[in-house]
Amino acid sequence: MIDVHPTTEVQEPERKMSRAEKRFIERASIEAQQTLSNTMSRFVDFMASADLTDESIKEKRDALSRQWKTYCTIKHLSELAFEAVATECDKIIAVYNSHKTEA
């Protein structure tokens, strides 16, 4: 005989995070934001240099993106964070290209 009733699992109540755990997460978040900011600052400084080619921009973007993904892996950041550098670099490149075409 096939049981048509769904099984009900007993769910344990979710444990509240301790104050120390919350602080740890907050510090890790601040550190990740600072690292992301420093990485993006390096890209902006690179973009401010005089002789840029599409190839050099792509290489720099890819290099910084790889470094950021390594950081995310080491720090156990979420999958969403992995693409942060690439996304932000693409935004900067788009602005750069729009200014380049206007000039």
Polypeptide structure, described:
By secondary structure, the protein is mostly helical. It has four helices and no strands. The chain has helices at residues 19-47, 54-75, 79-82, 84-102.
Task: Offer a concise description of the structure.
With 103 residues, this protein is an all-alpha fold. It has helices spanning 19-47, 54-75, 79-82, 84-102.
List the helices and strands and how they pair.
Blueprint: H1 19-47, H2 54-75, H3 79-82, H4 84-102
- Arithmetic mean pLDDT: 86
Written as H for each helix and E for each strand, in order along the chain, the element string is HHHH
Low-confidence stretches: 1-5
Radius of gyration: 22 Å
Strand content is under 5%
Based on helices, strands and strand pairing, what is the structural class?
mainly alpha
